[in-house]
Amino acid sequence: MSKKILGLDLGSNSLGWALLAADDNSKPLSILDAGVRIFPKAVEEKTPTPKNQKRRNSRLARRTIQRRARRKKYLLNYLVSLHLLPKELLDNTQPEGILNNLGDPYFLRAKALDETLSAHELGRVLLHLVQRRGFLSNKKTLLGRDMLDDPDVLAVLDESADQDGSSKEESAFKADISKLRQEIIDHGFRSLGEYLASKTSHQCKRNRHDQHLRTDRQMYKEELALIFERQAPEHSLLTDEVRAKIEHIIFHQRPLKLKKDRVGKCSLEPYKKRSAIAR
Q: Each residue of 126-169: pLDDT tens digit?
């Protein structure tokens, strides 16, 4: 019986093949059949951007908004139970009007460092902190150094990472954060809230497209610690347990999950899991 040789040509969006007849010495004699399978590219035309990147970014934005809303609702309910916010806020479809009547949150954050706040003013400050809690990398820092060589871990990290493990975008964030922190120190402010309160109503107090007001998680942690230190003696309900729970609600961030249990079985080797897509 003559031998048969299968030749494959793997391309980025095509698979060419040829089946050859050969003699006993594996020397090709003739072409039995040949063909090519072409499939759509997984990236946009003229750019290496994956086609599903836009959809993925939109999904990420929706998740961020949903988690922020749940976090704010959780803290609001807890503060109401402690009488730090009015009960009228519960199930209120327009809570902004009630909250704005309690005072400017930036002014109250600065005031909390030196003066005693009322219960509702303190609740207004805490609820404001849960809305914007600063940047915190959720990549190598939270994955653990013992997992940095795991190929599955590396697969979820940004391809454009620098040598220190930070992506280019993350490095730009950190540069803006360092610049803001130095500006706060140079002007003698004790906290981020006190710095923002010094700005006029016409100046930007949040990051915008044409602004680079980037903050990190540590700024908010340091400010909350200063507020608790000044307000705790004036509010007996701010026990260590209550303070710990408030900090957990505001700052808790889940680590990345690799979800290895969701890897399906290979169609060619049913008893083995699918291998990762080569990059």
A: 999 998 888 887 664 444 444 445 554 455 454 445 545 456 66
Give the C-alpha separation, 221 to 232, whole Å.
Answer: 16
Distance CA 170, CA 139 (A): 11
How far the first Cα of the chain sits from its last, in Å, is 40
> Among positive and negative, which fits the CA dihedral 141, 142, 147, 153?
negative
Q: Do residues 87 and 80 lie in contact, with contact meaning Cβ atoms separated by under 8 Å?
A: yes
Other residues' Cβ atoms within 10 Å of the Cβ of residue 117: 22
DSSP per residue, 191-214: SHHHHHHTS-TTS--S--TT----
Task: Render 155-204 in DSSP notation, one character per residue.
Answer: HHS-TTB-TTS-BHHHHHHHHHHHHHHHHHHHTT-SSHHHHHHTS-TTS-
d(CA 35, CA 116): 80
CA distance 122 to 131: 15
Question: What is the three-class DSSP state of 9?
Answer: strand
Residue 29 carries which DSSP code?
A: E
- Give 226: exposed, middle or buried? Use CB within 10 Å, 0-12, 13-18, 19+: middle
pLDDT at 137: 73
The half-sphere exposure of 211 on its side-chain side, counting CA atoms within 13 A, is 10
